Amino acid sequence: MQVTICPERAIMEHVTSKWGVLVLQALFDGASWRFSDLRRELEVVSEKMLTQTLRTLERDGFVHREVHPVIPPHVEYTLTPLGKGAADHLVALFSWIAANQPEVTQAQERYDGS
Amino acid sequence: MQVTICPERAIMEHVTSKWGVLVLQALFDGASWRFSDLRRELEVVSEKMLTQTLRTLERDGFVHREVHPVIPPHVEYTLTPLGKGAADHLVALFSWIAANQPEVTQAQERYDGS
DNA sequence: CAGTATCCTTACAGATACTG
DNA sequence: CAGTATCTGTAAGGATACTG
């Protein structure tokens, strides 16, 4: 995804990307997910973006993709230990945001009113 | 910035946006910054994007904008206590990524090679 | 079911010029 | 110095149709 000044920034962008954040979160508290379930969970994500996001996170070693060779196809996505580490931080951040959301909303109203 | 399913997601997107991450980080370990210095620090950010990012973070109550009415203009940006809280998490995440970057890079090479 | 492959759109981002 | 205002291009993202 776009410019890569340094490897760290690139990884940061994968992890904090719009859908990356949500995928890691879902995998964090859901253990194992199928493609379609994940899609429903995230709401309004297109197939293309979900696939792209999962591939990027799989490539980074954050997500494990388990294919069961049956018909119809059955694929399970889980966090790797590495992905768990990243997700930990993301979930902590999101919890903080949820806890402080009222304060932020107030700040916004103050800003818009002045 | 774009679709807002819920307030939390919107705030998350501000904080984890490409330039939001970098601005919060810089403010975190630099105390106070002038516009131009910040621009130099982040490298290759356009004036427009830096302004836009700072405004969004200011509106959210994360960043304080101090204008000194002199000529030429002098403006200082600092983190608010609220912004400090968000930046804490971001910095923790980035440290984790820096520490685990080698492992991620290895995973990428494995993925690309197979 | 779990994806690819296409096409299409817009909004994000950058460049440039100008101003208080 | 610290921005705004405008213009413009690109690529991120979405909708749809199709496939193993």
TrEMBL record, chains A, B:
Residues 6-105 form the HTH hxlR-type domain. It holds the Pfam family HxlR. PROSITE patterns: HTH_HXLR. Keywords: DNA-binding, Transcription, Transcription regulation. GO terms for molecular function: DNA binding. The keyword Oxidoreductase does not apply. This is Transcriptional regulator, HxlR family. It comes from Lentzea albidocapillata.
